[in-house]
Amino acid sequence: MTSGTTTSSGPGPSVPVLDDDPFSRSFLADPYPRHERMREAGPVIRLSHYGIWASARHEQVFAALTDWRAFSSASGVGLADFRKEKPWRVPSLLLEADPPDHTRVREVMTEVLSSRRVRGLREEFAAAAEALVGDLVERGTFDAVRDLAEVFPLRVFPDALGLPEQGRENLMPYGGMAFNGFGPRNDLFHEAMADAARIQEWINEACRRENLAAGGLGQDIWAFADTGRITPEQAAMLVRSLLSAGIDTTVYAIGNALAALAAHPGQWARVHENPALAKLAFEEAIRFESPVQTFFRTTTRTVDLGGVRIGPGEKILLFLGAANRDPRKWINPHTLDVTRRTAGHVGFGTGIHGCVGQQVARLEGDVVLTALARRAATLTPTAAPEPRPNNTLRGFSSAPIRVEKAAVRSR
Amino acid sequence: MREPEFVTVVREKTVVSDGVVGLVLGHAEGTPLPSWRPGAHIDLVLGDGLVRQYSLCGDPADPSAYRLGVLREPDGRGGSSYVHDSLSTGDRILVRGPRNHFELEDAPSYLFVAGGIGITPLLPMIAEVDAGGARWRLLYGGRTRRSMAFLDVLDRYGDRVLVRPQDGHGLLDLRGFLEEATRDTLVYGCGPEPLLTALEDACGARAREMLRVERFTPREAIHDDRDGMFEVVLAQSGLTLTVGPGQTVLECVEAAGIPVLSSCQEGTCGTCETDVLEGTPDHRDSLLTEDERADGTTMMICVSRCLGERLVLDL
Ligand code: HEM
Ligand code: FES
């Protein structure tokens, strides 16, 4: 690794240039020391490997996320610039759109995932968590990722959507495509896309009105097509948004939370003592080990970010996961603290694209951690978690743990 | 059924006076725009929860264009500065409406009073009234002549229009102007709050029957108002707190050492949603549906307040 500086065009300080490849396997397997180098190099840096701009500091990442006029999503929130390259799939109506188009569909999606609707899911989600976690705790040792994080969201979310039973095994691979698809065309990208055509076909079928069960979120979206607020084509695309954004993210988030809590026994003791802390612990884990590590924006005009001038039409990589550990913003950022005030973390993004499913994600995290907190006095890792490389997501393919069953408590 | 909502394209943007730009919007799909009557306004949905209302000031018979006049608001933030500084020809804007709370009613004679940008809804009214042959006069005030928009449009009406910039004439002589009113005259007024209050005073006992006004209250101003103290009882923690003016429930709860989740702190993300056990919340978020608001069983404590004196929260 080398670094240097270059003088940006026009007035302004020189901009540090780093040659790290943030999508290489080595970077993805151990991102934090590299984040630190980038964060400390400057508020905004250049990554020479891709000829792009980047920021790993909270202030600048936050500023870019909340200024959609200058930092556009419509050219893609991955490395590919949709104005120059054909996207691998039809762009998302939410994630890869700017106002005014974004505004209308976002309002529909906000209504679909209304607070009342999400509350209505709680009972079923909690029952599923109690059952699954109950069995695992009886076993004493299990894999927090393979046996719990990868199982739970797939048990509850596809049903909540009303997806067909047949073919649900395509959901995780589709998420893998979507999130690897934001990176460069590296081997992760190509591996994920190996079976793309077949998987996309299943996804497209699953989004059709006649294939979605009554009473699910999918039909709720379609109902908006009847009111004329969205077209049938848009309805299908919005169902697709829930499929690509709503499963892998929570799998990674739950796995990361369990791995982080197992690695911090003192913090788990607090959650076990007071299961009401479960939802705070989940939130802190999203800050600490952010499932969504990066998203791009494209400048629409010359902008000043952290005193650096960036011209129009430039791609900038925002390191959400690094911003969530910026010592300028957080005290002891590399420590998990379940009662930390997490407000301001960007693990769910922020601004107009801030995660529209965050209450669903929190619900899943809460019910799983609460079920475990009631039953397990301790969580102990029995092997180091195995990183699962992905161009956008950070998480593990395996995290074996042993749990010590708690004395029966009434509650 | 929801009102129309559609994407428009900025066809023209011109400076029409000091601090005022005129916009011409066309339908993005080239189709006719929804029809409207004088006095109507539309919402410009500018993103980030920014929604601004502007009166239509063009010709209702022209379905190809909406014309608006946009004053730069003094606080410098929000929608008007975006329209002034960033919006350009070719940009796309989401529009809702039109709707009309300022209908032009039939009368044999009219008196119009405009203050500043309040001229905009009156322009199509005047055009219609004039074409219909009714008697009318307009009293138009503003800070300075240069700040007063659409004087060129009004030129053709000759001395029916009294242009009275404050720097030359002082405050508008409303009483003098209203002396022309007969028993069946309708008075239409639009402008800043002090002008409308003065107009109501000047109409006196007859205000109800003869006066029609439209107020421009930026939504932001409503949301910024945080006054009013109330009590918040945290049922689980057994604490009773007082939320002071200028303080949010969230801040107050956090200051008491109760950890609660929050994120956007502007009522847009849903993170701080809290169950309400007693009391009526004053909802100021942009998330809850009308039904959920009416229910009052949940609230976003980062922005929402209390309609009474006491809330009991499940915290
Ligand atoms: C812990 C789990 C999750 C994490 C960490 C997460 C993270 C994010 C982030 C960082 C963004 C912002 C993208 C940007 O700024 O460009 C986002 C957007 C989005 N998320 Fe999530 N998400 C999670 C779970 C979910 C779930 C469960 C759903 C669906 C129910 C969902 C649906 C979406 C959608 C549709 C968007 C696009 C919103 C827009 O562009 O307006 N996410 N998410
Ligand atoms: S913190 Fe986002 S709605 Fe209150």
TrEMBL record, chain A:
PROSITE patterns: CYTOCHROME_P450. The keyword Glycoprotein does not apply. Residues 1-17 have a biased composition (Low complexity). The keyword ATP-binding does not apply. Gene3D superfamilies: Cytochrome P450 (1.10.630.10). Keywords: Heme, Iron, Metal-binding, Monooxygenase, Oxidoreductase. GO terms for molecular function: heme binding; iron ion binding; monooxygenase activity; oxidoreductase activity, acting on paired donors, with incorporation or reduction of molecular oxygen. It holds the Pfam family p450. Residues 1-22 are annotated as: Disordered. InterPro entries: Cyt_P450, Cyt_P450_B, Cyt_P450_CS, Cyt_P450_sf. It comes from the Bacteria. Belongs to the cytochrome P450 family. This is Cytochrome P450. It comes from Planotetraspora mira.
TrEMBL record, chain B:
Pfam families: Fer2. Residues 2-105 form the FAD-binding FR-type domain. Residues 230-315 form the 2Fe-2S ferredoxin-type domain. Its cofactor is FAD. The keyword Oxidoreductase applies. It comes from the Bacteria. This is Ferredoxin.
